[in-house]
Amino acid sequence: MSTHWKDYQGNDESFWEHEWGKHGTCISTLEPSCYSNYAPQEEVVAYFQKTVDLFKTLDSYSFLSAAGIVPSTTKTYTSAEILAALAKPRGVQVSIQCSSSALDEIWYFFHVRGSVQTGTFVPSEPDGSKSDCPATGIKYLPKGSTATPPSTTLTTATTAPPSPTPGVPFSGKGTLPVTTGGTSTGCIISGGTWYTTGTCATFTAAASGRLLHQENSCSVI
After folding, report:
1. How many CB atoms lie within 10 A of CB 139?
2. Tens of pLDDT along 49-108?
3. CA separation for the pair 129, 103 (Å, rounded)
4. Helices in the chain by DSSP H: which ranges?
5. Could you give the CA distance from residue 54 to residue 38 in angstroms, rounded to a whole number?
6. Are 152 and 86 in contact (CB under 8 A)?
7. What is the DSSP code (8-state) at residue 220?
8. Radius of gyration of the CA atoms of the chain, in A
């Protein structure tokens, strides 16, 4: 997952939590009897493993590049060109989604022959979901590019913020930067864990003095 299922903002763990909470119900509702020797939370492993296995068969970049559709900040393509390139290797259509006329998502569809855990996923036509990209002028941007240049805001500070008063507990919400040897090395995302890049987690100071994680109030520092 650390190789194939990355969050574009660098916050992989929160992204995986979101995906399980939103899409994992397709497998989390299975009866334990659906497994030969069920172990608690086995369905979580099955969900992520099956998703990664399917993803590895869907080389969207190669499907598109074989048709001469490659990332560019200047060139544009038609919806028909992109759909045809993605349909050719699998023999069925897909749905594509755009953001500000830039290709943003590719939806692949399957029928399952057998069980969700061990069955065969057979490529199928879209189940009614329609592509929302324009007919022409679609951008296929390189990774790290955006459809519209981000705005830049310059701020200046003339005074340093006051230091916390000893003995007074923290209050409100905020992030927890990590400093090693006087150098900023990232920020905390959960109890005892930090990233050197990505989005910092927000913590709320509870009346007990504990810091509660934004995603899960059971996670404390």
Report:
1. 20
2. 999 999 999 999 999 999 999 999 999 999 999 999 999 999 999 999 999 999 999 999
3. 16
4. 12-23, 25-28, 42-55, 60-65, 79-87
5. 23
6. no
7. B
8. 23
